[in-house]
Amino acid sequence: MTNALRKVTDPELGIDIVNLGLVYGMDIDDSNLVTLDMTLTSVTCPLADQIEDIIRSAVGDVVPDLVINWVWSPPWGAEKITSEGREQLLALGFKV
Fold first, then answer.
1. Coiled-coil intervals in this record (predicted)?
2. Staple partner for 25: which of 19, 37, 48, 64, CB 3.0–4.6 Å?
């Protein structure tokens, strides 16, 4: 599942949602329903629906159903970016 999520990139930053630290948690119940706790870089992100569609497409072959639980507390911050994500952002010219 995590490998599928690594294929989902933030449309604005071009870095996957796992390395950006947007995925806060994941639970898979006995019926294989996945609940994904995640956030976005901003509560007012205009691309939320697009990102959700990309996630559903990416995991569709892995899990039969997915619920995204949008989490706003704690808010996302640059400290949540993984070291791999930081390297990717630096390569793209972002200062992190």
1. none
2. 37
The residue assigned the tokens 């569709």 is 60
> 85, 84, 51: which is closest to 70 by C-alpha?
51
- pTM for the model stands at 0.91
Q: Which residues contact 78 (CB under 8 A, 6 or more apart)?
A: 96
User: Whole-angstrom Cα distance, residue 72 to residue 59?
Assistant: 23
Question: What would the 3-class secondary structure string for the chain be?
Answer: CHHHHCCCECCCCCCECCCCCCEEEEEECCCCEEEEEECCCCCCCCCHHHHHHHHHHHHCCCCCEEEEEECCCCCCCHHHCCHHHHHHHHHCCCCC
Cα gap 22→71, rounded to integer Å: 9
